[in-house]
Structure formats: C-alpha cells, structure tokens
Amino acid sequence: MKKLKLGFLVSGRGSNMHAIIDACLDGTLNAEPVLVISNNMDSGALEIARSMNIPAYHYSARTHPDPVQLDQAMTEILMTHKIDVVILAGFMKKIGPVMLNAFRGRILNIHPSLLPKYGGQGMYGMKVHEAVIDSGDKVTGVTVHLVDDNYDQGTILAQRVVEISENDTSETLAERVLGIEHTLFVEVLKDIIKGKIKLSGIATST
Ligand code: GRF
Questions:
Q1: Three-state DSSP class for residue 32
Q2: Nearest C-alpha to atom 5 of ligand 1 is from which residue?
Q3: Could you give the residue ranges of the DSSP H alpha helices within 26-96?
Q4: Residue 110 CA, ligand 1 centroid: distance in Å
Q5: Is residue 182 annotated as a catalytic residue, yes or no?
C-alpha cells in the first residue's frame, strides 16, 4: 500500500504538524510528510520542518503580492509533489479558490473547539478558549473537519470532548485541548488510511 503524501500549511509553532510527522516517522501512520508551506517566514513550524529535513517553503503576500498568483503557486507546488491530503495545522489564511478546487474534499483543518461552537472568522488561538471559559460551558473539545469556502464550516470528520473544570483558566484549557488535538489529528489520518473515513480521490487499504 502506497504511503499517503501529506502537505502541511502552517503559520505558527507547528505542534500539530510535529505530532503528525512523528507519527509518520515512527510508523504509526502509513504516510509521508512531503512538504511544509508557511505564510510566516519566522514560524516555528518551518524551523521544525527544516530540522527534520522536510522541504519547507515560505509563500505569502511578500513572495507573491497578487493573491491569485499566490493561490496558484501554492496549489502548483502541492500538485507537483503529488500531495494526497493537505493538512492545515494552525494556518491563519483563507484557502484560495484555486487550491480549493484542486484539492476539494482533501483539505483538513483542526479547530480547538466543538464546532460549530466557537468557530468562524476571528475565532482562533486563545480567543477560542477565552470565549469558552467566559461562557460557563462545562465541556469544550477539538474538531477535525474538511475545508470549504467558509471558515470552520466544512464537513466534520471527528470530534473529541474535553471536560472543563471549575479551576480551569483559558491557559490550562488550551494546554489540555492541544494535547487532544495532537492525538485526534493522527487518529483521523489513520482512519483515512484504513478507509474508515472516506475522502474523495483517496484510495485506501480496505
Ligand atoms: C491549534 O490550536 C489548532 O487547533 C489551531 O491552531 C493551533 C495551532 O497550534 N487551528 P500548533 O501550531 O499546531 O501548535
């Protein structure tokens, strides 16, 4: 069975990307981390990728001032490398129409809440956990979903619930949720490889 080729889009520290790459390298996932693209040339994720000898590129308005050309260039490099699944692991930019059309149904995102709660434009990072704590909710969680034209609204592939205790702050919650993110993203990829989760255009082992 051929390895699933993964392309990562990242903006920040890259801990989700790191967890997935580790799972590829230790054989947990029959997948290959092929390349990493970041819109942020100073992102920790690019540093991690380079330290692991994974080709890592900076693509942004600085390298491609025209948004259409940027969208085309990013799509082209993913296609040149025959990427099967595009993984948004903390990617802060909207996916352009060229990439969406080329990889529709094969772009995954992770979000640190139980979508549709606490999703949408402007809901990212600590803002999510602060809103959850302010709400008084008793549970939050993690969602992995397909990416479509709207922020955080694509088909949900998997969710995990995280209990909130009275002593939780947005920081303690963020830390606990992040730990669950790392395992859930790997589990979803495992299920895609096994064929338990079906993505359009992805042949599986079943
Ligand atoms: C994660 O909380 C993820 O859910 C969100 O962005 C954050 C990225 O964290 N989309 P990291 O860069 O993977 O550490």
A1: strand
A2: 90
A3: 44-51, 67-80
A4: 7
A5: no
Q: What is the pTM of this model?
A: 0.96
Q: Which amino acid is at 98?
A: V
Specify the long-range contacts of residues 53-56, CB closer than 8 Å, at least 24 apart. 54/21
Contact 86, 107 (CB under 8 A): yes
- What value, to the nearest 5°, has the Cα angle with vertex 105 and ends 44 and 159? 65
> In DSSP terms, which residues pair with 159 in a beta bridge?
143
SS3 184: helix
For ligand 1, the distance from its centroid to the CA atom of residue 206, given in whole angstroms, is 31
Structure tokens at 74: 């990013």
Could you read off the pLDDT tens digit of each residue along the chain, which spans 206 residues? 899 999 999 999 999 999 999 999 999 999 999 999 999 999 999 999 999 999 999 999 999 999 999 999 999 999 999 999 999 999 999 999 999 999 999 999 999 999 999 999 889 999 999 999 999 999 999 999 999 988 788 999 999 999 999 999 999 999 999 999 999 999 999 999 999 999 987 877 65
